[in-house]
Write a structure and sequence with these properties.
Helix content is 22%, strand content 28%. It has a single domain, classed as 4-Layer Sandwich (Deoxyribonuclease I, Chain A), CATH 3.60.10.10. The radius of gyration is 18 Å and the shape is globular. About 8% of the residues have low confidence. With 225 residues, it is α+β, with helices and mostly antiparallel strands.
C-alpha cells in the first residue's frame, strides 16, 4: 500500500441518532480501514469526543461538525491523527472543510456538504460553494449529499445524490484515485470509499455485495457462472 494513500469514507447516514445506523457505520469504517470519515445528514445537534470514539473507534481523535437544525441536516468529519494531519478547518452553514496531509505529501482541502432540500436555500448554498472556491487555495475535493441512491427494490431506482467532485489540480495530485460504492443495509444511500492511490502490486480483492441478492436476475446469472 502506498504510504501516502488516504482512505476517506463518505456516507449520508440519514441520522446518527439511530443506534442501528451507528453500528452499521462502525462496521463500514472498520472494514474500509478509513482514516477520514465524512457524514452528511447526521441529524445531531451536538457531538463529543466520546461520541466519536463510540461511533468510529478510539483511534479517531479529531473531528469538526456543523450541528443539525432541529432534526434536519448536520455534517460531521472525523479523522485519525496517527494517519493524517489536519492543518486547518472551517465550518460554514452547509459544509465542513479540512486541510489535510499525510506524511510528507502535498496538502489538499476536503469539503463535505449537506445541500438543503428547501428551494429557498439553494441560492445560499451555491453562494457558499462559490465563496469556498474563492477562499480555498490549492487542490480541493467536495463530497456529500445532493451532489448513489437506491430504493432497494427488485428493480431499483438509482439516482446520483452523493458524489465526489475535485478540482483539476487535485486530480493531478492523485492520478490513481479510486472511488467505490460500499453496501448499506439500513440507509437508502450507498457509502462511498475514496482511495487517493491504488497499490499496483496488490491484486484486486473480490468482495460480495449483499444488495446483489436483491437485483432482478442475479440468481439466474450466478447459476450460469
Amino acid at each position: 500500500m502506498d504510504v501516502q494513500n488516504i482512505y476517506v469514507a463518505v456516507w449520508n447516514a440519514r441520522g446518527l441518532n439511530n443506534p442501528a445506523r451507528r453500528s452499521a457505520v462502525r462496521i463500514e469504517v472498520d472494514d474500509a480501514q478509513a482514516s477520514v470519515v465524512c457524514v452528511s445528514e447526521s441529524k445531531l445537534q451536538s457531538v463529543t469526543q466520546f461520541d466519536i470514539a463510540q461511533w468510529f473507534g478510539a483511534r479517531f481523535d479529531g473531528f469538526v461538525y456543523v450541528p443539525a437544525v432541529g432534526s434536519a441536516g448536520g455534517v460531521l468529519v472525523a479523522w485519525r491523527s496517527e494517519d493524517v494531519r489536519v492543518l486547518a478547518s472551517r465550518v460554514d452553514r452547509f459544509s465542513v472543510s479540512i486541510h489535510i496531509v499525510k506524511g510528507d505529501g502535498a496538502a489538499w482541502w476536503l469539503t463535505t456538504v449537506y445541500g438543503p432540500t428547501c428551494d429557498s436555500l439553494k441560492d445560499e448554498f451555491l453562494n457558499e460553494l462559490r465563496m469556498l472556491r474563492a477562499a480555498i487555495v490549492g487542490p480541493w475535493a467536495v463530497t456529500g449529499r445532493r451532489f448513489t441512491w437506491s430504493n432497494s427494490r427488485a428493480e431499483p431506482t438509482l439516482v446520483k445524490l452523493d458524489r465526489w467532485f475535485a478540482s483539476v489540480d487535485w486530480e493531478e495530485l492523485h492520478p490513481d484515485v479510486s472511488l467505490s460504492a460500499l453496501t448499506s443495509s439500513i440507509s437508502d444511500h450507498c457509502p462511498i470509499l475514496m482511495s487517493t492511490a491504488v497499490a499496483s502490486h496488490f491484486g484486486k480483492r473480490f468482495r460480495f455485495e449483499r444488495f446483489w441478492l436483491k437485483l432482478e436476475g442475479f440468481m439466474d446469472t450466478a447459476k450460469v457462472l
